[in-house]
Amino acid sequence: MLSRIFSPAYRLFTTSATSASPATMKLVESAISDNSVTIFSKTTCPFCSSTKSLFATKFPNVPAKVLELDEIEDGPAIQSYLAQKTGQRTVPNVFVNSEHIGGNDSTQAAFKSGKLSTMLKA
């Protein structure tokens, strides 16, 4: 009985390794590997705005690839794949030189500690 109650919720919060299409995986992996900074974002997210503003103001010479998941047809599939890849279901989801930084709090902390500047100089 409990499995009937919790099974739908479990499926909602888990992703299968095969759930993302090859095209989705390629798009994500290319965006991460081909850019110094990649931000998976949503246009209505205030935390995403804060992260994008940080890079625009503090690192204006470093182009950031921003993918607005609420404006991309495959946005939900991309977010699901990122959750599988990183363990993070939320946006922003930030990568610097192909290294996963995390969300806004982690990105802001990396900036304040100087780690972000060091990573971008490498």
TrEMBL record:
Give the coiled coil ranges: none
Q: Name one GO biological process term.
A: cellular response to oxidative stress
PANTHER family per record: GLUTAREDOXIN 2 (PTHR45694), GLUTAREDOXIN-1-RELATED (PTHR45694:SF18)
Q: Does the keyword Transport apply?
A: yes
Q: What keywords does the record list, in alphabetical order?
A: Disulfide bond, Electron transport, Redox-active center, Transport
State the name under which the record lists this protein: glutathione peroxidase
The answer on whether this UniProt entry bears the keyword Iron-sulfur reads: no
Q: Which Pfam families match?
A: Glutaredoxin
| Superkingdom in the source lineage | Eukaryota
* Species in which this protein is naturally found: Collybiopsis luxurians FD-317 M1
GO MF annotation, one: glutathione disulfide oxidoreductase activity
Q: What class does this enzyme belong to in the EC scheme?
A: oxidoreductase
Tell me which InterPro entries the record gives.
GLR_AS (IPR011767), Glutaredoxin (IPR002109), Glutaredoxin_euk/vir (IPR011899), Glutaredoxin_subgr (IPR014025), Thioredoxin-like_sf (IPR036249)
GO CC term (a single one): cytoplasm
Q: Which reactions appear under catalytic activity for this entry?
A: 2 glutathione + H2O2 = glutathione disulfide + 2 H2O; 1-chloro-2,4-dinitrobenzene + glutathione = 2,4-dinitrophenyl-S-glutathione + chloride + H(+)
Give the Enzyme Commission number. Answer: 1.11.1.9
Signal peptide (from-to): none
> Residue ranges of the Glutaredoxin domain?
37-101
